[in-house]
C-alpha cells in the first residue's frame, strides 16, 4: 500500500537569526516572513547585516514551481515590521517568476515603539519597501486580520494579533505588535508565534486562546523576554524549532525548552528544518533542507 500523502509541511529555512517559514499543503504554498535583507539605509551603516533574500528566492524556485513553471504563493504574511522578518519581501515580490495572490501585513506606526528603535532601526524603511513591492506587482494587501481564519490546502490557519489588546502606556519595541499564526493540519497543531514575548502580557493573554500544540516556533529567536514557563505549560509542545543558532538562544529559554519539549531544533545547526504533518496526528521532522 502507498503511504498516505501528508496533510502539510512547514519549512523553517536556515536564514541565520531571522525568520522565513514556507507552508505547503495539497499543492498550495504560503510564506510567513522573508528573512533579513542585505539593504540598509545609507545613513545607518551599522545595520549592514548579512541578507538572505537570494536564499529565500532560490528555495522557492526549487520547491514550489507549478506545472506552468512559475511559483504561486496563495498568501504571504509579514508578522511585524523588523528587517529580520520583512527584509526579503521586496525581493520575493519583485521576482518575475513568483506570483503572490494576497499579502497580510499590519500597518506600521512608529509612535508605538520606543525612541531608540524608532530612530536607530529601519522599521519604516523595510515596511515601505515591502508595501511598495507588493503594490508594484499588484498584490492586494490586507492590513486588518486579527482573528481571521484562512485555509491553505488541508491546513487551517488562524491569525492572532498581539498588539490589539495592548493598553499599556509604555512604548515597547515592534515585537509586541507581532502576529501569531495557529496552524492545524492532519490532527496536529502548531503555534508560529513570530517575535511574541511577555513584555506586554501577550504570552499570558494568548496562551489560553492557542491551547495545547504539538509544534512551537519559538518566539523572538529564543532570546531574552520570550518563552515564559507559563506559555510552555499551557502549550506543552513536543517539538520546538528556534530560528537561530544554538549559542544565540538565551540559557534560561533553553532550559525551559529542554524541560517541556521532547525535541528542540535550531535552524542554523540543522541547516533548515522541515516538519511534516503526517495525517494521523504525528509529526515527522527532517533536517538539512537547504542543500
From TrEMBL:
<dbReference type="InterPro" id="IPR052159">
    <property type="entry name" value="Competence_DNA_uptake"/>
</dbReference>
<dbReference type="InterPro" id="IPR036866">
    <property type="entry name" value="RibonucZ/Hydroxyglut_hydro"/>
</dbReference>
<protein>
    <recommendedName>
        <fullName>Metallo-beta-lactamase domain-containing protein</fullName>
    </recommendedName>
</protein>
Amino acid at each position: 500500500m502507498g503511504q498516505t500523502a501528508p496533510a502539510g509541511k512547514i519549512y523553517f529555512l536556515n536564514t541565520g537569526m531571522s525568520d522565513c517559514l514556507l507552508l505547503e499543503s495539497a499543492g498550495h504554498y504560503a510564506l510567513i516572513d522573508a528573512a533579513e535583507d542585505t539593504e540598509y539605509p545609507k545613513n545607518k551603516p551599522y545595520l549592514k547585516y548579512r541578507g538572505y533574500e537570494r536564499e529565500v528566492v532560490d528555495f522557492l524556485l526549487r520547491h514550489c514551481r507549478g506545472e506552468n513553471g512559475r511559483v504561486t504563493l496563495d498568501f504571504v504574511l509579514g508578522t511585524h515590521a523588523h528587517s529580520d522578518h520583512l527584509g526579503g519581501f521586496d525581493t520575493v515580490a519583485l521576482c518575475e517568476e513568483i506570483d503572490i495572490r494576497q499579502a497580510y501585513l499590519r500597518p506600521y506606526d512608529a509612535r508605538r515603539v520606543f525612541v531608540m528603535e524608532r530612530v536607530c532601526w529601519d522599521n519604516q524603511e523595510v515596511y515601505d519597501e515591502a508595501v511598495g513591492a507588493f503594490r508594484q506587482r499588484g498584490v492586494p494587501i490586507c492590513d486588518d486580520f486579527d482573528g481571521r481564519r484562512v485555509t491553505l490546502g488541508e491546513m487551517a490557519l488562524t491569525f492572532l494579533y498581539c498588539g490589539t489588546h495592548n493598553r499599556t502606556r509604555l512604548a515597547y519595541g515592534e515585537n509586541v505588535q507581532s502576529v501569531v499564526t495557529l496552524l492545524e493540519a492532519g490532527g496536529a497543531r502548531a503555534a508560529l508565534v513570530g517575535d511574541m514575548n511577555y513584555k506586554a502580557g501577550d504570552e499570558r493573554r494568548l496562551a489560553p486562546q492557542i491551547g495545547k500544540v504539538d509544534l512551537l516556533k519559538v518566539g523572538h529567536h529564543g532570546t531574552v523576554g520570550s518563552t515564559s514557563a507559563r506559555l510552555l505549560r499551557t502549550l506543552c509542545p513536543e517539538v520546538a524549532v528556534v530560528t537561530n543558532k544554538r549559542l544565540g538562544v538565551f540559557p534560561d529559554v533553553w532550559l525551559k525548552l529542554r524541560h517541556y519539549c521532547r525535541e528542540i531544533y535550531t535552524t542554523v545547526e540543522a541547516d533548515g528544518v522541515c516538519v511534516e504533518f503526517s495525517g494521523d496526528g504525528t509529526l515527522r521532522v527532517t533536517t538539512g533542507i537547504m542543500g
